[in-house]
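Blackboard transcription, Thursday session:
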Amino acid sequence: MRALIRRKAQLVLDDVAEPEAGRGQTLVKSLVCGICGSDLHQLHHLEHVAAAGKRSGLGDWIDPNRDVIFGHEFCAEIIEHGPGSTSKLKPGQRVVSMPFVMAGGKAEWVGISNHVPGAFAERFLLSEDFLLPVPNGLPSEHAALVEPLAVGAHAVAESGITRDAIAMIIGCGPVGLALIAALKVAGHEPIVACDFSPARRAAAEKMGAHVVIDPSKDDPHARWETLGAAPTLLEQMKWAAAGRASKPSVVFECAGAPGLIQRIIDGAPPKTRIVVVGACMQPDTIEPVIALNKQIELRFVLAYTAGEFAATLHNLAEGHIDGAPLVTDIVSLESAAEAFNRLSTPGADVKILVRPGS
Amino acid sequence: MRALIRRKAQLVLDDVAEPEAGRGQTLVKSLVCGICGSDLHQLHHLEHVAAAGKRSGLGDWIDPNRDVIFGHEFCAEIIEHGPGSTSKLKPGQRVVSMPFVMAGGKAEWVGISNHVPGAFAERFLLSEDFLLPVPNGLPSEHAALVEPLAVGAHAVAESGITRDAIAMIIGCGPVGLALIAALKVAGHEPIVACDFSPARRAAAEKMGAHVVIDPSKDDPHARWETLGAAPTLLEQMKWAAAGRASKPSVVFECAGAPGLIQRIIDGAPPKTRIVVVGACMQPDTIEPVIALNKQIELRFVLAYTAGEFAATLHNLAEGHIDGAPLVTDIVSLESAAEAFNRLSTPGADVKILVRPGS
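(Written on the board underneath:)
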């Protein structure tokens, strides 16, 4: 079958062996799959990602010198179950799944593995126990967004944000938009979104942000007082003395740019909780004394739970989340490598989907 | 009156004007006052501290070129109240107070101000509303520890630590020992304490640590599995698959050494909460991708509430906390500058108290 392969830090289209469903596995046809920021990063820096994973306690989980087929934000169609299947889902059924498959007695990541293909291949394997049927009426292009959108649901859950808090989203790429979607579903207000890109600001507004800021024109941290939070320690004392309530503040760092965490520590009100969702891949500098003075909290969050994944699919199917503003293009497997290039300099693009089928 | 003055980054003994209690203020005699790590740092680097405070939203709160009299960990004796006093506390009564005094309509820090003296002077001013009487039987030398010990009570409260969690204290100076005291009062177990200094490890044991580690001989992060926590992501998955419970982990960073936060991120189990209590005064490097992979949480905490301060005094008076292991020397005002020098290379010393009275 045809697949888009990462080989020696390049993307190449090549034929690979047809996967075969073992016991507990299901062979699926890849209908559509989004390109994730992590795919982009892993294309060029898989050595770093492998080393960071090892340092994080994952062991020798991937060999960057061997082929990898990316693709973990997929909607697929069941072709056939492996031997001894007890699944009620029939061939032809559209499905999504968390990007894991049990193989050789352990969980392999689908989309970042030397052993199993990801969804940038015509066909790939999933575990039948993890399959979730795509409800009728939900287009495959939107079902494929469940994975990145679940990241937002998880970050909001882990943030512990209270109803009275001001939520500020820094960076409105797919992760930031997923945050806005999750906050909107939770009925949160206000949602304040910041991005340099006009296209991403427009998408943020469509996803439900109440205030949208262009940081090249307005400092988002100049807004705190208007939004209802005492912006500095001195103001906090004055407000407290005057019996004026100050709203809590939660900032979601969704850009992963170096230096950004400290800029938020500098600009955010005292006691701000900063939820770091964007992955800054290089070492970064913070100034603990400023964070101490302001009693800042930093929560680093990742991925999602099975429950959050299923709830996000439900929210897409019920129309509580409209995935349309995320998708800015859909391309064939032949054009996928070029789409990776386009995304490496984000401009008008937010999420590009790939249709691996012929 | 005599006072120890910070003047041009030096400590000098000099005569200064006698303070006079205004309305709402109380003139007190300084009985005993501890030297804090922040005094030490501010002696040499007040410009940095002033700038960091300004950047943290405190405005122009101190002029490093003008005289400052340190001393904010005090036990004092009431000399006289200012005009119109309604205080029930009589002259001769021993008192402690949070280190603030209302002066000229605003709160001045006692011990770090250009306008009011700290407790390294024979006499100083407090606000009569903030005075707490020292219960009979509590020696002044132990009452003076209420301020640093309240820092521990606050850090434990802000940590949100649960009963089942493993508490690890990195650095057993006065801050680390205060943490151990507060965890002990809360009935927490196990308390694991780490310090390179034998004297500080001995103090940690006396304060109630259950496990004491010399990091020059044993890597504290090699202990997690024995303590009951899955130490890595891979182990976490294995434990989960085997139905083996993993205890939560909370690490209190009480040393403030550069690079230490990242070393804890590297060594601690996934989902560890790191409570930063030690003030690293210089920019520090973290690697967000490792923190993300491990879903680490960083809480920067500072100071205490009025309730925590009062509760700590109560715990000292009732014998729930024994301050004795903290105090390694008591010196006169004449020897205080030399005691500052000794503390700048911590060895056998933990907390040195100063008796400013003649």
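Lecturer's comment: The two ends of chain B are 10 Å apart (CA to CA).
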